[in-house]
């Protein structure tokens, strides 16, 4: 057979006879799936509960101020940097083993966060927790190795969308805990969750005997992790530092330089951390491109929608500012004049509902998360019948539509709920399609690192989306002006900024940017040649 006649599939790897749960009862198989998926949810679970509680956590660390955002930044930073390393180590040393190590790291970090009053130690705890971000990417490979083929596509679709803990339980439980207890209760709950799930993983989930027999390319792993980390630092802080300042873009330049060094070195290494020929093959490259575009949409929506919902309504803002004017007048403003106080704003903030974290869960997260949870498994099963490319097309189409709807129509509770359902459909389809496309494109012995690279792309793109939105918001700050006929008050005389609030134009421009990414992603999905055949659970690729 000539080179031109070689089919575009990787050579199958010999599979150990004890690798799969063939012949196991459905109860055993579904139990294994449920435990692994619950474990893989811990990173998303903490993000939903903890990231939204930043305003409640900040007062416990005096002097931190705006740097409180580092509690979220460091989680994404360390998680993105360690995901490819853990993916590769799972290929070498076992996927369940690496999941357990990530769980142990998460538990130690969570305990530190629950107990400490030191900001430095708190960040150390968050960094240790972040290792668990690798769990879903490692779980893809574990399912590929141990489940019967027919269960793999749907199970992979469920990994990212979960069984409802992060999508349904976390917003409601997190809001309830914050309303009744301190923010530390969030970390105690997370610690209990891990303490329950980890023993179940040890006792009931088998380890895969499949191994890649090579040494760990430690230099390559560290170069890749550091390069990704530097780029993420720039994307996470560029808006604060100034995108064009040398001290800011120097991080990005250094990160890109390290990634180029990584590519150059890996070409010459006999046992690279990642087969670059496979990484840059058309199948894998197209999947990573689509994943990048889809994750930009997720990044923009994940950051904007909670803030939009929790922004005070126009009436609430007017009342708050009027009360502030009265308080600062020190009795100089007669009660009879209060109704004459007029508050003018520089732009509309019609998106604000004034919801609490619990309200955000009830108005939006429950709808998007619940729909995504159902769509993930359904899209995975659909991929098994028609190929994962079709769920990807649905994902990009619904991402685009939902983002456009948010940009122009998300101004009431019922609109938020309806649009959240549309986005949830795309979210579930996306996280069923992308991992299944990777599984079908790579050999089993490179599943961990390949899924790790998918995780890196997702993290970088999410940060790109968040950074772009931040730039649009910074250009459209909300400001107010007080007018009191015949009375001079300390707040009159010009417009004053409202910290943390932005006008409709800021969010709309960011959402339109995301819609553009979704539209390009739709074109990529339509043109993609890979994924047009029914998903096999990795059988064709080994």
UniProtKB/TrEMBL annotation:
The keyword Transmembrane helix applies. It is a multi-pass membrane protein. This is MFS transporter. The keyword Lipoprotein does not apply. Residues 32-533 form the Major facilitator superfamily (MFS) profile domain. Keywords: Antibiotic resistance, Membrane, Transmembrane, Transmembrane helix, Transport. The chain crosses the membrane at residues 29-48, 68-86, 98-117, 123-143, 155-174, 186-206, 218-236, 248-265, 286-305, 357-378, 390-410, 416-439, 451-475, 510-528. Gene3D superfamilies: MFS general substrate transporter like domains. It is found in: Cell membrane. It holds the Pfam family MFS_1.
């Amino acid at each position: 057979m000539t080179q031109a006649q070689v089919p575009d599939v990787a050579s199958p790897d010999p599979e150990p006879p004890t690798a799969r749960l063939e012949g196991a009862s459905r109860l055993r198989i579904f139990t294994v799936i449920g435990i692994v998926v619950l474990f893989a949810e811990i990173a998303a679970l903490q993000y939903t509960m903890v990231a939204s509680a930043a305003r409640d956590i900040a007062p416990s660390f005096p002097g931190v101020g705006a740097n409180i955002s580092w509690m979220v930044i460091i989680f994404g930073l360390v998680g993105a940097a360690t995901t490819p390393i853990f993916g590769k180590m799972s290929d070498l040393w076992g996927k369940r083993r690496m999941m357990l190590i990530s769980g142990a790291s998460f538990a130690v970090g969570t305990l530190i966060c629950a107990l400490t009053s030191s900001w430095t130690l708190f960040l150390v705890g968050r960094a240790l927790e972040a290792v668990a971000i690798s769990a879903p990417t490692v779980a893809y490979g574990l399912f590929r190795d141990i489940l019967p083929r027919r269960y793999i596509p749907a199970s992979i679709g469920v990994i990212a969308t979960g069984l409802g803990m992060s999508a349904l339980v976390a917003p409601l439980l997190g809001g309830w805990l914050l309303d009744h207890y301190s923010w530390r209760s969030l970390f105690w709950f997370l610690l209990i969750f891990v303490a329950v799930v980890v023993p179940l993983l040890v006792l009931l989930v088998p380890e895969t005997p499949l191994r890649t027999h090579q040494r760990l390319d430690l230099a390559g792993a560290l170069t890749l992790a550091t390069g990704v980390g530097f780029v993420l630092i720039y994307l996470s802080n560029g808006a604060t530092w100034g995108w064009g300042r040398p001290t800011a873009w120097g991080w990005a330049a250094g990160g890109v330089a390290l990634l180029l060094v990584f590519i150059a070195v890996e070409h010459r290494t006999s046992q690279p951390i990642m087969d670059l020929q496979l990484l840059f093959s058309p199948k894998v490259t197209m999947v990573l491109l689509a994943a990048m575009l889809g994750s930009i949409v997720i990044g923009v929506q994940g950051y904007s929608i909670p803030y939009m919902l929790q922004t005070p309504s126009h009436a609430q803002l007017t009342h708050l500012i009027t009360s502030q004017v009265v308080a600062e007048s020190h009795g100089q403003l007669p009660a009879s004049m209060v109704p004459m106080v007029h508050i003018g704003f520089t732009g509309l903030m019609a998106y604000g509902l004034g919801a609490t974290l619990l309200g955000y869960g009830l108005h939006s997260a429950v709808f998007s998360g619940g729909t995504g949870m159902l769509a993930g498994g359904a899209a995975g099963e659909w991929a098994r019948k028609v190929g994962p490319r079709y769920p990807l097309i649905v994902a990009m189409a619904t991402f685009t539509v939902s983002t456009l709807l948010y940009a122009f129509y998300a101004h009431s509770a019922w609109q938020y709920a309806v649009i959240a359902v549309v986005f949830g459909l795309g979210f579930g389809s996306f996280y069923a399609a992308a991992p299944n496309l990777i599984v079908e494109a790579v050999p089993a012995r490179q599943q961990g690192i390949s899924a790790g690279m998918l995780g890196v792309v997702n993290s970088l793109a999410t940060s790109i989306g968040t950074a772009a939105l931040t730039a649009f918001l910074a250009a459209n700050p909300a400001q107010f002006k007080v007018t009191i006929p015949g009375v001079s008050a300390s707040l009159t005389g010009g417009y004053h900024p409202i910290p943390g609030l932005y006008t409709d134009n800021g969010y709309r421009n960011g959402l339109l940017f995301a819609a553009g990414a979704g539209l390009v992603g739709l074109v990529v999905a339509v043109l993609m040649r890979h994924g047009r055949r029914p998903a096999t659970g990795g059988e064709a690729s080994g």
